[in-house]
Amino acid sequence: MKDIEERFKELGVVPVVVLEDVKDAVPLAAALVEGGLPCAEVTFRTEAAEESIRMMTEQFPDMLVGAGTVLTVEQVDAAVRAGAKFIVSPGFDAEIVDYCLKKEIPVFPGCISPSEVAQAVKRGLKVVKFFPAEPAGGIPMIKAMSAPYTGLKFMPTGGINAKNLEEYLSCDKIVCCGGSWMVKGDLVKAGEFDKIRQLTEEARRLVDFFRR
Length: 212
Prior knowledge:
Largest sheet: 4 strands, parallel
Strand order of the largest sheet: 3-2-1-8
CATH class: Alpha Beta
Structural class: alpha/beta
Number of domains: 1
Radius of gyration: 16 Å
């Protein structure tokens, strides 16, 4: 868990990927690796997700690939079998969190309230997802919740882009941000992987600049 948290911190941005077609998995992974962000949170809400994770991890074994939008323990098993190194859930699901902890699978549940944060802290989690970040109050909400839970850090996702990335990364309570602006669905469907690589390079440069 700690190793993955350190990787997240180094990356600064975790691309949140939706893949509708398995054929796009490898070229997308290549674009992310070449762009300087060798990581992907592949959302598990498409039929292509499981096989996409398998192909990405086979072709790029050093890439940090995880499964997002995980809603059941069965999806946890499927994702891990495919090669996912971490699990992300949109909300705090005690069954999923406890299942992952029991099996020593790194898990990052969504927490947007003190009650959810309390449940995460009780289980020893050090990093949680904050989703949907912008609609849920953004940095002011994260800072407010962090006050009584000093040891917890966040991975905000939802509404984050190149324009507000600095605001998030400048907060010491943020490990990294989840973002999809460099891997938008229309770019993936159109096969514009060069554009994705360029946007990924820009995101990498922003992270390096903001955290220098």
